[in-house]
Give the backbone structure.
Amino acid sequence: MKTVKIGLLGLGNIGTGTYKTLEMNRTEIETALNAKVEIVKILEKDMTRDRGIEVPKEKFTTDPDEIFNDPEIDIVIELLGGIEPATTFILTALKNGKHVVTANKAAIAANYQEIMDTAKANNVSFKFEASVGGGIPILGTLTGPLRANKYEEVLGILNGTTNYILTMMTQEGIDYDTALKDAQAQGFAEADPTADVEGLDVANKLTILMALMFDKYVAPGDIPTTGISGITKEKIDAAAADGCVIKLIAHAKRLENGEIEYKVGPMNISNDHPLASINKEFNAVFIKGNAVDDVMFYGKGAGPLPTGSAVLGDVIEIVQHALN
Amino acid sequence: MKTVKIGLLGLGNIGTGTYKTLEMNRTEIETALNAKVEIVKILEKDMTRDRGIEVPKEKFTTDPDEIFNDPEIDIVIELLGGIEPATTFILTALKNGKHVVTANKAAIAANYQEIMDTAKANNVSFKFEASVGGGIPILGTLTGPLRANKYEEVLGILNGTTNYILTMMTQEGIDYDTALKDAQAQGFAEADPTADVEGLDVANKLTILMALMFDKYVAPGDIPTTGISGITKEKIDAAAADGCVIKLIAHAKRLENGEIEYKVGPMNISNDHPLASINKEFNAVFIKGNAVDDVMFYGKGAGPLPTGSAVLGDVIEIVQHALN
């Protein structure tokens, strides 16, 4: 039985979730693949933090080249987050002939074409299921089972922080500041919530969705983006009076003339639309295809284990199709 | 550019939907595959029915061996429905080295192991995304992007006829017989609705889901199955008083001791559960995985184009991974 060797960049929350998911389901994964899967090196400074997992000390390194230059490593998983040094690391790994898996929406959205071209030029896979919708298997579905469709439209609830805040405002009748503090207390919002509440995180995800669905790259900064910090109790009440709830929506649509229209912003969603009942920290992606018509995928858009599930799904796909 | 040649068994509603979907999206599909895709022969007696598509007369045959024995045919799509002669045709095609795609839940559920073993022995693919949930890409997701999970539970609304009837009874306050007649008038129920309303169609689908999720085959006849013909207005009102709606659910769950518990029958679903808002002819599958936690997939569980979308998704997968 062969062993697939993995180098992991980053052992923060998502890295730890990925490591845990592999330990938890190792038997099933290895049986399905007929191969052993081993994380052999981990780029991470902090060797002492209690992560609830046992990681042998000799796996840690602070030198990324130990991973990029190791000829035995087949796959590099990048879970550092942020645009740099992650993008440089992704490109270096690809150029060194490693297949790369990442959850890093910011790095992909900023450098989509260069990363895809580099993967292609080096004849290796670049996979990023976890970058949009966390555990929800949306990207693999769009590029896999739904591939026979021409995509017409996407409406996504792609940020758990803002969906939690809007749900609390709607269901509890509280104002924005109170709901934000509640989200921070529950661990659903960061101390500096700007990237979430101003829609920047969602714009990164819409860039990725549009690239896959419409073969069209639009930089996140070029997507008209409005966050939820201007949503008041009065606006929510007015939406309710119209039979709607307000959701922060990533929206892209193919127009009659073939152009793609796109934006991120709060939208009134009719109560009888499937997206209206997606509440709290959950995410959902609603797609219209010209053959399948309406489909929706719902699940946890974040969290260590759901995201680890998506990262390892990509690893399994690479082992099955690229390393066999 | 190579040409992938397909033999199609059956040009009824689903066969016609598959043919239409290919014609509609041929450019996108062929560009993505870098291959031409051609349905070269069709097993079908009725050459004259107006299907809204132009099919050259010379593609029709009434002799299945013309397809099985044609060395140029790479893929056989079986869309006859029913257990026989479909099962024999599927097995013959596999034994002749053809990859096979089908939407035929009854044939798969009845003969799962023999078909899978035959595909494996002949080193060809057998794919059946369209057999469960129509256009909803559930099987490819379970065996693809979600593969890193150990599955714990599935709750599926997998039959549009019964979901339409139950929705009408719930929303309009009408009785079962009136709702059934309405469903028949709308084209959502057949003249003889037995297989749908008694849960037999759903049992076939649960057999397939359990085989993929739990590696456990249970014949549809061995699944405890109750339909919806015994559901009264009073039962629906009683569920509503408890904050629930009644749905016909395919349910399987891994117990603490590792055993799998399974049944098909009406279930009270709490109004705040995502399945509660799946109405009319729509289907949905709610899955719990040990890493991803709860995910749900929603869409049209039937219809020529959604089902054609799933059939062609399987064809694309075969061209990408088995014929390359």
In short: The longest strand of chain A covers residues 244-254. Chain A touches chain B through 50 residues (CB under 8 Å). The mean pLDDT of chain A is 96. The longest helix of chain A spans residues 13-33.
